[in-house]
Amino acid sequence: MRGPHNIWRLIRTGATFERTGAMREVLEALEVPARLRLVARVLGWPFKWLGYKGDPALPPVTRAITALGPAYIKFGQILSTRPDVVGPELAAQLGVLRDQLPPFSVAVAKATIAEELGRPVETLFSAFSEPVAAASIAQVHEAVLAADGRHVAVKVLRPGIERAFRKDLDAFHFAAGMIEFLAPFSRRLRPSDVVNHFESTVLGELDLRLEAAAASQFAANTANDPNFRVPAPVWEMSSRGVMVMDWAEGTPMGDVPALKAAGHDLAALGRNVLQLFLSHALRDGYFHADMHQGNLKVAANGDIIAFDFGIMGQIDEYTRRVYAEILMGFIQRDYRRVAEVHFEAGYVPADRDVNAFALALRAVGEPIFGMNATQISMARLLAHLFEVTERFGMQTRTELILLQRTMVVVEGVARSLDPALNMWETARPVVERYIRENFGPRAVLRDMRRTAMVLSHFAPRLPEMLQTALERKDAPAPKPATHRASTVFLSTAAVVLVLAAGVAVGLLASGQIIHP
Asked: Which domain of life is it from (predicted)?
């Protein structure tokens, strides 16, 4: 359905921002040049009457976003964690989007639970509250299990949410296609791929069984992390539209005055949030990818409690090593190495100048050191970084979108607790630990062991492969060059397998292989 009808949807988006007064606030908050600001207002004014009215009781930007639908709300949630980008006033408005949206009725929630779980709410729970939090996709109720008195949270999807989300995503796909068609220079950013990635991620939130599985996996990975907790799901009471898990008792991380009143060390909490995220991303390759204040609480003893696992990120081991080397290069201010890693990983086209790229990275990184967050305009820094990536032809890496976005969100959360947080110094111990454990002799031996194990699966086929290679050597072939290449490849593969097996056996015999 990605047709011209979506033009109406996009026009109405701009008209809604104009009608609610959000357009002016957004343009000012983002420090858009006065000339472009005037052009946007002039183009938007004639269509003002086409926009949604929204809830007049809400601030302008929140009013516009909530009127437009869940996909816009999800985007607003991300921006709410970045007062250094959108300004403190706009960030405060967007903060309402995290878990303070209008709830749907308890009667509807109970009907959904009864339909999904096959039993009335009254038989499942001895107590069931009004909504305690309402977000873009679902709302949460506090309850007590009738069977064992366990204190739990019950998450219920909003009725009709999947249809509403697909309508918004349809418009996003259309907009991405129009941008690529009308502005060819934007194709390096791969807007269509970005929207596809966003779609697959967000639609995963619409099956709460997957969220329960994510919570279980995340809890297993982080079981030994100090000062961090993950509530356990109640598997027998989880379905596509309903999820039940242990109640997370604590102070919301977004309520800074309450955290102060409870005596928590805000600077320590800020450091812990950032370091925990980096540990999960680098150590496990599996991280909470929606780690804003609305999904975090602080227990009475200072433990950080994470919940809402609808969006989780995964990165493979090779990418984690690349990411760690890039971070370590910035921390050590070794911009030449950062540039080399970008080229080695294929993030920058090979025909570009590595020295020029290193110099450009220095211009981005140097202003960070020796400053705290109050002295840095993250908006200007990101704008500068975008200019550098555009000049050197870097393409958007869809596999890193969640990692990059969550890094921005987590940094915003940490700096809301400690405005003077130095991101690089805070990240240093986590990155250095990862480097120690994954680079050097121990890591090489571990990688060789894994390689030997993979190659050993082919060992039973070695005689057959060698026999086939020898038989093909004497057989006539229509394309001698291709045939010789195939024979050489098979013979070489066999030799490599034999050598690898020999090396592995030797290492195992000498006890040099280090178990992970």
From this structure: Bacteria
